[in-house]
Each structure stands twice: as structure tokens, then as C-alpha cells.
Amino acid sequence: MPVPQATIPVSRAPGLSSRSLAIASFRALWSANFTWNVARWMEQLAIGWISYDLTHSPFLVALLGFYRSLPLFLLGMFGGVMGDRFDRQRIVLTLGVVNVTCMGFVAAMSYAGALDYPTLVIAEVIMGTSMAIDWPSRRALTLDLVGRELLANANALDSAGMNVSRIVGPLVSGAIIAFLGPTSSLGLMALIYVASALVVLKIPRVPASRLRPAASGVFRSLAHGFGYILQDQAVVGVLAITVAMNFLMFPYLQLMPVFAVDILHSGSIGLGVLSAVDGLGSLLGTLYLASIAIQRRDGLIFWVGSALGSLAIIGFALSRDFILACFLLFVGGIGRAGFSALQSTIILRNTSDEMRSRALGFLTLAIGVGPFGSLEVGALSTLSSTPLAVAANAAVCVFLVAGVTARLRGLREA
Q1: Which one of 54, 110, 130, 381 has the lowest number of neighbouring Cβ atoms within 10 Å?
Q2: Which CATH number fits domain 20-205+218-412: 3.30.930.10, 3.30.43.10, 1.20.1250.20, 1.10.3720.10?
Q3: Among 363, 252, 371, which Cα is nearest to 311's?
Q4: Is the pTM of this model over 0.70?
């Protein structure tokens, strides 16, 4: 049965609000998302560290990001269609089992001393495929459970949880690598994926939307969804800026081991600290957004946060001081909170129930350009240097964000 929403009181008092967490089913989803994100950030740091240790090549480290994100580009739209047609909880649970199996195998290979770069490539392709299908359903579940009135608050709290995981995951993974080795980090990560899958079982069943286009084919559904989103400038603007951010700005995350080892000379613990302060800035930004979400200034916060986050990465890439680098990542995290917390909120608010999973599928596709950005920044790093490549890409991203915002009035007024 659908979860009733009418009995949930909505407070409009100012200040930090966690009113979405009053809904038990959303608390379960939030917990599942949190543990999933902790494991995901541990995975990114550990796999990046292991790949750089195996290859000593910034390009091959960035190439893993390509393999991890390519399925988002190829399959994200189809993941959205699946979320409109099938039971979303079952999709998330099934893919949780895939995550556990994949990372458990990687940990076992590492314990056996047989882990190599091709194995990491295969694992990242599997994990990326899982995320491409999982993410639209996981995001659409939020609206199923809290309703449109609490959507912005729920998404802000979910982003806050993600950013806590960006602090916890890298710090734990970096410390374990330093003191126990990367194999132990992989093993703990697999166990956390198990915990995430178990929490999904606590989410009450919510049937797939009765509005789903069961009678139409997959490609017709995609074409219908594409024509639908083109009619809304706010949605088009979010998708365009998401493409710019994921192609030009976010690939720096894949190269963080290079900055930690070769640029800032801080080791695995320093790598964990750099990733953690990035997440701390985003956490504070999303907690602030949770307190003002009712005011509906989504478009402004979204594009300003995107630009601020990119500007901070320019400074980080050019910094040679560890403390200054941490500060700039912290500032960038605050800016990127607006981007990460509001991209799906704007889309969900501007699309119908029938179209929301497909719209999120197109958002997954936009996120999926990241692998091409990883290839580009990896190649540019080889031709010049990693700091110059990251700074140049982030500078172009700032100009694109400004151009899209100036062109699309609907985004500015969202």
C-alpha cells in the first residue's frame, strides 16, 4: 500500500529541519542511502589508491573513472524507464546484492594476492552498471515516500547524509590503508554494502506508478520522455549544467591520489583528509539548504553553487600547500552542495508522476558524461600536468554554467 502522507505535520518554522525523517519509510531509505554512499566513497578512494600503486599512471587512474561512469551514459535512460515500469524497491535490493558480490570478489582477489588492473576495470564496469539502473529508482523512491511538499527537505537531508559519508568513508578508508593495507579497506567496504542491502528490506513496499506506460515500447517511452523534458527550461538547464560539471569539474575526484602523492606529498591519510574536508563543506551546505528549502530559491542556489564549486577547484588545483588545498576543497564543497542537493529536486518538481523516473534517467545520462571527462583530463594531464588540466577544465566549466544560466530564464526563476 502507498505510504500515507496526510498525517505528517509540515512545519514552516525557520531553522534546521528534519521533518522528512518523521516518516519511518524515508528514515529507512535515508539509512540505506547513507551506508551505500559510505561504501561508494570508500570504494573510490581504495580503488584509486590501488590502481595508482599498481600502475603509477595518472591516465590509468583516470581511466578507471571512465569505466566506472560509462554505464551511466549508456544505460541511465533505460534505468529511468525501468523505474517507471517495475517495483523500485526490488530494483534497489537486487542491485545491492550485485554490489556485495562484486566488491566481495575484489576483496577476495586482493587477499589472494591476485588483484590486478584488468580485474579493477571489470569490477568498476559492473559497479557502474549497477548504479546506472539503481540511481533513478532510488531517487524516485524519495518522492514516493515523502510527497512533493517535503521533497526539497528530503533531498537536502539525503545530500547531507551523502556528504557525511564523504567525510566518514575517505577517512576510514585512508586510515585502514595506512595501518592495515588496502585489502582490509576492500573487505570492510563489502560488509558495508551488505548493511545497505539489508536496510532496503525495511522500506515498506510502494507499488510502481499506475501511470507507467506499460503499453508502449521502451524506445517510444524514451522518445516521449525526451520531448517532454525539452519543454521545460528549468529541467533543460539542470541537465546542461550537470553535463558541464560532470565532464569538466568532477573528474578531479578521480585524480585525488595523484594530488595527495605527487603534488601535496601527504600520503594515504592526507588523501583521506582531502576527501573528508571536501565532504565537510558539502555537509554544511546541505544542512543549511535543509533549513531554507521551503523558500524555493532552487534555481539561484543551484547555478551559484555550481559556479562557486568550480572556482574553488581552480584554486585547489594550483595550490601547493596542504592546508590551503584543504580550505579550498572545503569552500568548493559548500558551493557544490547547491548543485548536488537541488539537481533532482528541480527536476522532480517540474515533471509529472508519469515522467519522473524517465526524467531522472536523463539526469543519469547527463551524469554519465563523466567518463569522457575522465579520459579528457587524464590525457590532458599526460600532455601537460595534472594541476593544469584540472584547473583549465574547471575554468571552462565556470563559463558554461554562466552561459546556460544567462540563456535559460526558466532555470533562473526555478
Answers
A1: 54
A2: 1.20.1250.20
A3: 252
A4: no
